[in-house]
Design brief:
The relative contact order is 0.11. β1 and β2 form a beta hairpin. By secondary structure, the protein is mainly α. It contains six helices and two strands. It has a domain of 108 residues. α2 runs antiparallel to α3 and α3 runs parallel beside α5.
Length: 175
Amino acid sequence: MQATPASGTTTGPDSPEVFLPQEASDLRASLLRGLAGRELAVPTLVPPAPSPESTPEVDIPDNGMDEYVRLQRRLLLSTLLVSALAVPAAAFLFDWTTALSLSLGAVSGMLYLRLLARSVGRIGPESKGVGKGQLLVPVVLVLGCSRIPQLEILPALIGFLLYKPALLLQAFVRP
């Protein structure tokens, strides 16, 4: 048991030691006296700038988002290519209303794909799942085709699904 000079209370090995302001200044003074005469290395807050010749090229760690953005662009481009081939073929084999419905469906499919990619890109610690907003695109497409007499539902749905062959094309043809 020790008696602290400032408080007059006794402290044992099990009781917590209480520092009073006077004890804190005494502790500080004793630490400073102990450090006196020693050579102290002062840490630098800002390291010196290395010379450009000695700086090695450091790859910035990337979390894969650049590759994901490139994949999105390739997928949208291949969807556009498949749609650009399918619409004239539908106009040649069928009529213009079928080609128009197919092109409207292809544009809707690209919009759906873009919204889905944006929703997937937002997944992280704060967002655990994919949003449902992109599901409105096929619903609006079917409702629009049923309301407008110049549009046909089946070619529009086939056009909407043109992103699927483009997706398969990306899976088999990697640059």
